[in-house]
Amino acid sequence: MTLLNAPKFDAGRERKKAVLIYGGIALVLLAAAIGVLGYLLGHGWFYTNLPAEHKVDKFFQALETKDYNKAYALWMSDPDWQQHPQKYDYNLKRFTEDWTTESPVGPIQSHHVDISKTDGTGTFGTGIIVAVRVNGDHKLFMWYEKKDGTLTYPAPHELQYQ
Predict the structure, then answer these.
(1) What is the DSSP letter of 4?
(2) Angle ∠(133,136,138) on CA atoms, nearest 5
C-alpha cells in the first residue's frame, strides 16, 4: 500500500475510537474518585466497610427497640442461636444486662453510625472498627470480625475523629 492508494478516512470509526479512549479515561477517573471518596468519608476504600456499618446500625436499632433476641443474634452472627443457646458462654441474660443496666451509657435510646476503619493484621485487616455516637454524644467503638461477622465491644482501640 502506498500513499496514493491509502484507505479512505472513516469519520465514524475515528469517532468510536475517541469515545472509547475518553470513556475509558473517564471510567478510570470515576473509579479512583469513588475509591478515594469512600476512604476520605470514613467508610473504607471503595466503601468496603458499609456492610459492617449496616450490621452495627441494625444491632443498635434492635437495642433501641429493646429487641434483645435480635440484637443478640446480630452480636453472635447466628440468627438461629435459640436452637443451640448452650453453644455460647456469653448468654442472653448477661448480654441484656451489659447493654441496659451495666452499659457505660445506659440503655440505648438513640444512635448514629459515624465512621469505620479497617484494622488488624494482614493486607486487608482482620476486622473493622465502627464508631457509633450513642444517646447524644457518647462515642462507642464496636469491633466487627470479618471472618465470622461477630461483634465485640470495646474495639481494640479508638478512632480519632470529630
Answers:
(1) G
(2) 50
pTM of this prediction?
Answer: 0.86
How many domains does the chain contain in total? 2
- Tell me, yes or no, whether 161 lies in a domain: no
> Cis before residue 107, ω within 30 degrees of 0?
no
Inter-residue contact 56 to 144 (CB < 8 Å): yes
Residue-by-residue DSSP string for 38-101: HHHTTS-GGGTTHHHHHHHHHHHHHHHTT-HHHHHHHHHT-TTGGG-GGG-SS-HHHHHHHTTT
Q: Which contiguous run of DSSP H or E holds residue 94?
A: helix 92-98
Q: What's the CA angle centered on 11, arms 7 and 17, to 5 degrees?
A: 100
Same domain, yes or no, for 32 and 62? Answer: no
Taking 3-state DSSP, the helix, strand and coil percentages for the chain, each rounded to the nearest 5, stand at 45, 15, 40
Residue span of the structural domain in which 25 resides = 11-40
Nine-digit cell string for 124: 486487608
Each residue of 110-154: pLDDT tens digit?
999 999 999 988 878 999 999 999 998 899 999 999 999 999 999
